[in-house]
UniProtKB/TrEMBL annotation:
Keywords: Phosphoprotein. PROSITE patterns: HD_GYP, RESPONSE_REGULATORY. This is Response regulator. Coiled coil: none annotated. Residues 148-372 form the HD-GYP domain. It comes from Ideonella oryzae.
Length: 372
């Protein structure tokens, strides 16, 4: 059974309350109060569908009541009809400017009041129905976004694992570098200059995106990727392309997600999974850039290199040096640490190297625990 709409009537004159209550009671559930303050409290507690509000009241007048209602989340959207004996057109304009939906002049005419109440309730019903429909559509869109981006994420993760398994000596490289990046980022966050850029959400994105850093290796021929010795200049040029290959794959995944969903997201509206993929794209593209501008693929220098890529650069090199590769033996911890520290200001961001120096014992423990 459909419940009648609830109407709150506010008037400091008992006679006016009685007249309006008798008029409305046969059709609606009526609440009544004689003060502005109690009207605000009653509206918050009962959530009426419509308020008939007297303008001229002692203490808190109708204008102040409406202003208070509009400041509260729960009462902001309740429609208000001003009811007043004031006859100045300026009073009516002020009431409507404050957000009232209509204005009824005393003495009230029953047919006019009932018609205007009915009209405003119908408008509210349509608005509420539209809001519910929009809410359902937003939920469905969110569900589709989650499903689609999960599929994209799994696909890219699978590609990243495939790229790593092509190099049989990388072993736990992906897992170790995730831990290294996490340690470095959390240490660097203690620096006030980097705290805002490394809130918890961003650190989670960076750690989650770290396995994608070498996804582009899937496009590098085996005779180059697995060559047991130094690469020629031509071979090295081909190897360097893994950065752009990986970035392009992730960029296409983001574009496909946006195209399938039928919209391009702004930075403010971008779903979390797309934010993570964008971080992954930056890491894949720029983790071989150098602080001094001598890296690749774009020769970026200093802070022009995205921070996630600067963190990944140290983590990636640290892991490569401490483990055997087809082209080199594993370095000792002492030699590796010295190499990283010496790279501050040339190969690496000095601030990230400072974070490395503060966490290198924890990184060594990760390396030993997850050794190939």
């Amino acid at each position: 059974m459909k419940h009648p709409a609830t109407i709150l009537v506010v008037d400091d004159e008992p006679l006016n309350l009685a007249v309006l209550s008798r008029l409305l009671n046969p059709h609606y559930r009526v609440l009544a109060t004689r003060s502005g303050a109690s009207a605000v409290a009653l509206a918050a507690a009962e959530q009426p569908d419509l308020i008939l509000l007297d303008v001229k009241m002692p203490g808190m007048d109708g204008h102040a009541v409406l202003a208070a209602l509009r400041q509260q989340e729960g009462t902001r959207d309740i429609p208000v009809i001003f009811v007043s004996a004031l006859g100045d057109d300026g009073d009516e304009e002020l009431g409507l400017a404050l957000g009232a939906v209509d204005y009824v002049v005393k003495p009230v005419r029953p047919a006019v009041v009932l018609a205007r109440v009915r009209t405003q309730l119908e408008i509210k019903q349509h608005r509420d129905r539209l809001r519910q429909q929009n809410g359902s559509l937003e939920q469905e869109l969110a569900r589709r976004v989650d499903e689609l981006l999960l599929a994209q994420e799994l696909m890219l993760s699978g590609m990243a694992e495939l790229a790593e398994t092509r190099d049989s000596e990388t072993g736990n490289h992906v897992l170790r570098t995730q831990h290294y990046v996490d340690l470095l980022a959390r240490q660097l966050r203690q620096d006030p200059q980097h705290a805002d850029a490394l809130d918890e959400a961003q650190i989670q994105r960076i750690v989650k995106a770290a396995p994608m850093h070498d996804i582009g290796k899937i496009g590098i021929p085996d005779h180059i990727l697995l060559k047991p010795g130094p690469l020629t200049a031509e071979e090295f040029d081909l190897m360097r392309q893994h950065t752009t290959i990986g970035s392009r794959a992730i960029r296409h995944a983001i574009a496909r997600a946006q195209g399938t969903l039928g919209q391009a997201f702004t930075e403010a509206t971008q779903p979390e999974s797309l934010r993570y993929l964008e971080v992954a794209r930056l890491i894949a593209l720029y983790h071989h850039e150098r602080w001094d501008g001598e890296g690749y693929p774009d020769g970026l220098a200093g802070e022009a290199i995205p921070l996630p890529a600067r963190l990944m650069a140290v983590a990636d090199v640290y892991d490569a040096l401490t483990h055997e590769r087809v082209y080199k033996p594993a370095w000792s911890m002492e030699t590796t640490d010295a190499q990283i520290l010496a790279g501050a200001g040339t190969q690496f961001d000095p601030a990230v190297v400072q974070a490395f120096e503060a966490t290198r014992h924890e990184m060594a423990q990760v390396m030993q625990r997850l050794s190939d």
